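Milestone 3.1: sequence recovery, worked example.
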């Protein structure tokens, strides 16, 4: 069984993150990821960047399910924070 901090570390090994939050119950995880690596990429490409990087863990069922609730650039994240 994985813990949120382990999934967070997996994502941080893929891309540099300015902000990351991972929650989950050991099987299903939800992530908020803010990274400059998302610059110039559409939503689908951002999600693929993460999911492709974790393909082995997802295929082996080590990581059962990962939902990326937010994949934002630092500027997009700041704009959201200012609206809140």
């Amino acid at each position: 069984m994985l813990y949120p901090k382990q999934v967070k570390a997996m994502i941080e090994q893929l891309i540099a993150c300015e902000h990351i939050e991972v929650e989950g119950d050991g099987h299903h995880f939800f992530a908020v990821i803010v990274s400059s690596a998302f610059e110039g990429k559409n939503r689908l490409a951002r999600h693929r960047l993460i999911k492709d990087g974790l393909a082995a863990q997802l295929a082996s069922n080590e990581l059962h399910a990962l939902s990326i609730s937010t994949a934002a650039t630092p500027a997009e994240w700041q704009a959201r924070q200012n609206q809140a």
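Helices lie at 4-14, 43-53, 55-59, 74-83. The chain has one domain: 4-71.
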